[in-house]
Amino acid sequence: MPAPTTLRHFDPPRDQAAVAGLWTSVFGANSIHRDPEFAVHQQRAVDAELFFVAESESVVVGTVLAGFAADRGWIYSLAVRANQRRRGIGRGLLLRAERALASRGCETASLQVAQGESGTVQFYEKTGYHPTPLGTMSRRLAGY
Ligand SMILES: CC(C)(COP(=O)(O)OP(=O)(O)OC[C@H]1O[C@@H](n2cnc3c(N)ncnc32)[C@H](O)[C@@H]1OP(=O)(O)O)[C@@H](O)C(=O)NCCC(=O)NCCS
């Protein structure tokens, strides 16, 4: 019987190192989380109320962040520790983030999935997401 999992707001500074470690193990070095300490710090500064963690036996096993502009919400950094997957933790975290966005007036929740991540796509399809015809455009801001 797996240990129970609780979902709660990110609690700095208690969670900072644990979240950074989780992001390193889940996302590796080739992502926007390559400096997880910085990423955690940045998100705290934006809206700590939209930063949730899953905890099991006093260990942080999952995260999700949300953000929004007007009525459009975004989901970021959904991560569940590898040995805790397929227990509903990802779905639960996503739901918390979606409800937080809805309560702030957001009408949509969107996210990006790396190409080739078919398991992640299946997860999002199971949780109600579908592809859109919109592509992403991006540039680096180094030098500003
Ligand atoms: C994607 C991720 C968050 C899913 O977390 P999880 O806790 O395992 O997901 P859940 O247990 O809540 O699964 C919800 C549903 O999705 C399905 N699902 C989850 N992972 C799946 C996979 N890899 N392939 C197919 N289906 C999957 C589950 O079977 C479940 O379906 P059900 O409700 O019919 O039983 C987790 O695998 C992860 O952290 N992946 C690496 C990071 C990542 O890709 N994050 C997303 C960034 S865009």
Key terms for this structure?
144 residues; Aminopeptidase; 4 helices; binds coenzyme A
Task: Give the helices and strands, then pairings.
Elements (H helix, E strand, L loop, with lengths): L4 E5 L6 H12 L8 H12 L3 E6 L2 E11 L2 E9 L8 H15 L4 E3 L7 H9 L18
Parallel strand pairs: 4-5
Antiparallel strand pairs: 1-2, 2-3, 3-4
Quick rundown:
The chain has 144 residues and is of the alpha+beta class. The protein has helices spanning 16-27, 36-47, 89-103, 118-126, and strands at residues 5-9, 51-56, 59-69, 72-80, 108-110. The protein has a single domain (5-126), classed as Aminopeptidase, CATH 3.40.630.30.
Molecular structure report:
This protein is α+β, with helices and mostly antiparallel strands and 144 residues long. It is 33% helix and 24% strand. It is built from 4 helices and 5 strands, in the order E-H-H-E-E-E-H-E-H. Strands 1-2-3-4-5 form a 5-stranded mixed β-sheet. Bound molecules: coenzyme A. The site of coenzyme A has 19 residues, from strand 4, helix 3 and helix 4.
Helix fraction, binned, reads 25-40%
CATH H level, superfamily name:
Gcn5-related N-acetyltransferase (GNAT)
Q: Unreliable segments (pLDDT under 50, ≥5 consecutive)? A: none
Instruction: Spell out which ligands are present.
Output: coenzyme A
Structural class: alpha+beta
CATH topology: Aminopeptidase
Q: What is the string of helix and strand elements?
A: EHHEEEHEH
Profile the largest sheet.
Answer: 5 strands, mixed
Give me the count of strands: 5
Give the CATH level 1 class.
Alpha Beta
